Structure formats: C-alpha cells, structure tokens
Amino acid sequence: MFKQYGCSECERLWDEYKTAARNAYLLDSKVEIASQEQNLDAILRLQPDIHNIFERRRELRKQILAYDAGSHGQANSANG
Ligand SMILES: [Zn+2]
Questions:
Q1: Which pTM value belongs to this model?
Q2: Do 65 and 13 form a contact (C-beta atoms < 8 A)?
Q3: pLDDT band at residue 71 using 50, 70 and 90 as cut-offs
C-alpha cells in the first residue's frame, strides 16, 4: 500500500493496522498452540476474538485504501 510520510492520518491508520495485524498474529499463535494441545475449549473461546480481529484488520485495510484513494494520488501529485 501507499503510506505517505508526514501525513498524520496515514500514520494513525497504519498504527491501528499494525496493532490489529499484530493482535491477529498473536491470537493465531494461541489457536495454533491450543490445537496442538487439542484443547478444544480454548479453541472455541478464541474463535470470536479471532473473527473480530481479522475483521478489524480487513476493515482498516479498506479504510487505508479508501483514504489513500481519496486524499492522496492525483490530487496530490505535486508531492509524488
Ligand atoms: Zn495520508
């Protein structure tokens, strides 16, 4: 994607995206461990969180792309 330096809105969106991506990764690891231990209870408990965080990550990605298309690009070509 197209992060622009010095743009505070981009920084904010990317920070949130990175946090969501990191949380998704951590939860994924927990599920991995739980499934190795065949801990079905833990897996079931983690399911809603996994769903939420991946949804969140997808949403932020969409926001970044939409924001970038709207606020950067051709209208801002003096910068690029
Ligand atoms: Zn920006």
A1: 0.76
A2: no
A3: confident
